[in-house]
Design a protein that fits this description.
Elements lengths: L13 E4 L6 H15 L9 E5 L5 H14 L4 E4 L5 H10 L4 E5 L8 E8 L7 H15 L15 H4 E4 L2 H11 L2 H7 L3 E4 L9 H6 L10 E4 L16 H14 L3 E5 L6 E4 L5 E2 L1 H15 L6 E4 L5 H8 L4 E4 L3 H11 L3 E4 L3 E4 L8 H15 L3 H12 L3 E8 L3 H12 L4 E2 L2 E7 L4 E5 L6 E7 L5 E8 L2 H14 L1
Parallel strand pairs: 2-3, 2-4, 3-6, 7-8, 7-9, 12-13, 12-14
Antiparallel strand pairs: 1-5, 4-5, 9-10, 10-11, 14-15, 16-21, 17-18, 18-19, 19-20, 20-21
Helix pairs in contact: 1-2, 1-4, 7-13, 10-11, 10-13, 10-14
Length: 483
């Protein structure tokens, strides 16, 4: 008998390759383990939410989850169409549910799918929760428990499972957070890339309510329909997609270009000159806007792999930046417990004070419009103003794709054994928040490096940053030689 493959939750749920790992049997097993976790919560009597993105068979997998939840006596609300992860998060909190699942592999290529689980907080599940789910999955795989389910043919199914549309309540919440009237007076033309994902009927609908004129003449939309292949490219607002969006901004003389990923929890921004803004730089811009224009007060938070440029803005307004391990679940926890003003990470995720403890790419895009409206100047000029405060930052992430797990271990040992210098640059302090990290000692400036190994493949991710270009290039050269 073939040994069942181990199912592990990463920084944002469990993901697998369709038909190989991500099968209906595995989805039902994972759903049973999640149902067991949901039933521990006093809110279990209120029910749970199930959503899905625009991938192959996504709604069928969602209904498979609903069958298992119903089999465990959990009232289950299934979204009526592909739904963004931040909408799942908001709806869990709005309906006071015990948790929710989104069937999504986020920005991964089309042949992947996954399950994101958010407990009653609405934020991504913390490690102690995912560990309990993994332990229960292992128990089920050993045959020490059973998957309980109801089907459409069971009389009880229709009494426990309902189809819902959560969009209008989420829209109302966004309108409470964003000054829509101010945007209406300042923004006339926007280009947006929905990457064939769950941003369709969400981000575009919010933008249509803001922009002037009939027949959507103020909105240029790319990829605004469901395509499970995502146009033959992964659904991520990365350099390739943002370059294309930048050309559209210039061609149509739009004021800004906005993009989200497949489940609309990540953002991509292009300024009025058609130039992409990195997530690291955009976090500093959003911090500037929230503290200066919106008058928010309190500390902010970022992951250890994220640029320190945001820290400079937060310090400028008299506050501090909390540093978390990689994974938005830790930032979401800070949003809930520390009421931080802004939480963000270099991979394109953010949320703000009194909003969901989950990445929200839709909110991130609208904050760009709001900043333009408050500042009464184009985004390219806002960038310059913010950079005058932060100073220059040179940042990169290099993914070393290695030939074997043994080579990965060898390189991790190589960095772990570094003591006094990294590529000839003296070590000031060793980082212990996550991975192997070093703050480096350079005259009149700062530099750091962080090394993290992938838990699922022979890949090492190395993050580098410096305020001095010469030092940055030296670190970059040293890393690239290792590949």
């Amino acid at each position: 008998m073939e040994k069942k493959r181990k199912i592990k939750f990463g920084t944002s749920g469990w993901r697998g390759i369709l038909a190989e790992d991500f099968t209906f049997d595995n989805v039902r097993t994972v759903s049973q383990a999640i149902a067991t976790e949901i039933l521990k919560d006093p809110k279990a009597k209120n029910g749970a939410l199930v959503g899905y993105d625009s991938r192959f068979l996504a709604e069928d997998f969602a209904w498979a989850v609903a069958q298992v939840f119903a089999g465990n006596g959990i009232r289950t609300y299934v979204c009526h169409q592909p739904t963004p992860t931040p909408v799942i998060s908001y709806t869990i909190r709005n309906l006071n549910l015990a948790g929710g699942v989104n069937i999504t592999a986020s920005h991964n290529p089309h042949f992947w799918n996954g399950i994101k689980f958010n407990p009653a907080t609405g934020g991504p599940a913390l490690p102690e929760v995912t560990k309990a789910i993994e332990t229960e999955i292992e128990r089920l795989q050993r045959g020490e428990g059973e998957v309980r389910l109801l089907t459409h043919l069971d009389e009880e199914f229709s009494k426990l499972v309902y189809s819902i549309d959560p969009s209008q309540e989420y829209f109302a919440e966004i309108r409470r957070k964003i000054d829509m009237d101010r945007i209406k007076g300042a923004v006339k033309k926007v280009a947006v890339d929905l990457v064939y994902g769950t941003g369709v009927d969400y981000l575009d609908q919010l933008l249509l309510s803001l922009l002037p004129g009939e027949e959507a003449q103020g909105l240029v939309v790319l990829h605004d329909y469901r395509d499970p292949y995502f146009g033959g490219y992964r659904p991520e607002p990365d350099k390739k997609r943002l370059r294309e969006l930048g050309q559209v901004v210039l061609e149509h003389r739009a004021q800004i270009g906005l993009a989200v990923d497949g489940d609309a929890d990540r953002f991509g921004i292009v300024d009025d000159k058609g130039v992409p803004i990195t997530a690291n730089e955009y976090l500093a811009i959003v911090a500037w806007h929230l503290y200066k224009n919106k008058g928010l007060r309190g500390d902010s938070a970022r992951s250890v792999a994220t640029s320190h440029a945001m820290d400079r803005i937060v310090e400028h307004f008299g506050f501090q930046t909390l540093v978390t391990p990689v994974g938005f679940k830790f930032i979401g926890d800070a949003i809930l417990n520390d009421r931080i003003v802004l939480g963000g990470e270099e991979s394109g995720g953010l949320s703000i004070q009194d909003h969901v403890p989950e990445k929200d790419g839709i909110l991130a895009c609208l904050l760009a419009l709001e900043a333009i409206a408050y500042e009464q100047r184009p985004m390219s000029e806002i960038r310059k103003i913010v950079q005058e405060v932060t100073g220059p930052y040179f940042t990169d992430r290099i993914d070393l794709e290695l030939e074997s797990e043994s080579r990965k271990r060898e390189l991790m040992d190589f960095f772990a054994n570094m003591q006094r210098e990294v590529f000839g640059i003296p070590v000031k302090e060793r980082q212990t928040v996550d991975g192997i990290g070093f703050d480096l000692s350079i005259p009149e400036g700062e530099a750091w490096i962080l090394i993290r190994a992938s838990g699922t493949e022979p890949v090492i991710r190395i993050y580098i940053e410096s305020t001095q270009e010469k030092v940055f290039l030296k670190l970059q050269e040293g890393v690239e030689k290792l590949g």
